[in-house]
Amino acid sequence: MYLFDKDILLEQKGEFNFEGIVAPHWSINANPNGGYLTAFLAAAMQKKSDKKWPVIVTANFLAKCETEKQSKVTVEAISTGYSLNRYQAGLFQDGTERTRAWATFMDESSCDKSANRYEKDAPEMPPREECFLFPHVPKYTLYDHMDVLLASSCAGWIKGEKDLSPQSEQKGWIKFRDNRPVDTLALLLMADSFPPPVLASHGIVAWVPTIEYSVSVRDIPDTAWIKAVFRSHYLTCDIVEEDGELWDENGKLLAISRQIAQFRRY
Question: Where is the Acyl-CoA thioesterase-like N-terminal HotDog domain (predicted)?
Answer without folding.
Answer: 23-106
